[in-house]
């Protein structure tokens, strides 16, 4: 991770859970981290904690609604003005709604596509363009995916969400191929966790907190820090090493 000191990383969905853990880890390793979310109060608190801890990097909170392309483009413009550009892009933001294929609401499906697929793609495009215009040839784009992007969960509430994560699997491989065709050494990686104990289930099952709690009580889950460790492992690999897909799940999780 030594070569990333002083470089700029963007972490989407950085206010809680995996995003917050990744942002903290990168600041700890000396990076300038732009952490974005719709609400930056928690990111501001995390930035103060990182500063108090004496970490060598910095965390810069940025308010951004990732379902709005104009917000994303404004964010990249601000990063260019203030920090030259993005060297590492961590597409972490994602959400799920309980909307089955046979009865789900179109607006909820669209919201999942907007955040899980389109925002990820827009951030990827803008991050690559930022690297290209500055002749950055060692950048890295990491998509935080899900095991739901590799097998269909047998639950109607999860089916559309899984479809968006299958898209992330395909987009990451497509990105890797396009980067190869562009003869660049910028790398693309997909990290696919199983059940991670965060606020995700409580947001997903917001009308049934007992169901959400049961998700995390059934087995010893992954922690957000486990995913952050996977991110630093991937970033810390030698520049000639392409780590395409990291699948990780709790030992007690069957599928």
Entry keywords:
seven-stranded parallel β-sheet, two-stranded parallel ribbon, 255 residues, globular, alpha/beta, 8 helices
Topology summary:
Layout: E1 8-12, H1 17-28, E2 32-37, H2 41-52, E3 58-63, H3 69-83, E4 88-91, H4 106-133, E5 140-144, H5 159-181, E6 187-193, E7 196-197, H6 200-204, H7 209-217, E8 222-223, H8 224-236, E9 245-248
Parallel strand pairs: 1-2, 1-4, 2-3, 4-5, 5-6, 6-9, 7-8
Helix pairs in contact: 1-2, 1-8, 3-4, 4-5
Catalytic activity: 17beta-estradiol + NADP(+) = estrone + NADPH + H(+); 17beta-estradiol + NAD(+) = estrone + NADH + H(+); a 3beta-hydroxysteroid + NADP(+) = a 3-oxosteroid + NADPH + H(+)
InterPro entries: NAD(P)-bd_dom_sf (IPR036291), SDR_fam (IPR002347)
Pathway: Steroid biosynthesis; estrogen biosynthesis
Shape, principal axes of CA atoms: globular
Fraction of helical residues: 40-55%
Low-confidence stretches: none
The biggest beta sheet is recorded as: 7 strands, parallel
Q: What does the average pLDDT come to?
A: 95
Radius of gyration: 17 Å
What's the arrangement of strands in the largest beta sheet?
A: 3-2-1-4-5-6-9
Number of strands: 9
Structural category is alpha/beta
- First-last Cα distance: 32 Å
The quaternary organization reads as single chain
Number of helices: 8
Condensed summary:
By secondary structure, the chain is of the alpha/beta class. The chain is 46% helix and 16% strand.
What does this protein structure show overall?
The chain is an alpha/beta fold and 255 residues long. Helix content is 46%, strand content 16%. α5 (159-181) links the parallel β5 and β6. α1 crosses α8 (224-236) and α3 packs parallel to α4. The longest helix has 28 residues, at 106-133.
